[in-house]
Design brief:
Layout (H helix, E strand, L loop, with lengths): L1 H19 L16 E9 L9 H14 L3 E10 L2 E12 L6
Antiparallel strand pairs: 1-3, 2-3
Amino acid sequence: MRKIIVSAISFVFLSSAAFAQEDDDASTPGAAKCPAVQASTIFVPDKTGSRQDGSATKISKTHDVAEEQGWNYHDLQVYIEDGDLQGFFITYTREHPCNNK
């Protein structure tokens, strides 16, 4: 049973590696390929206990500004240091500008 599981896992990794290889364009040797997307991660600081300008308000404002600039929300991670909330790391993505030709 263990050999079957190991074989199945190996097959998944090997087949995913084959699909991950990029197709080289022979007509433009050495040309740099444009990445599909670009990502940006920003830090939104937070003062624990602040009710006037709390976390939800700061994050919502950050999302609004990012969307105006063409960014799409991707991920949010809470940053806690020594048991205290310090802020949030928010990652946004958008189509890479070289794809807009």
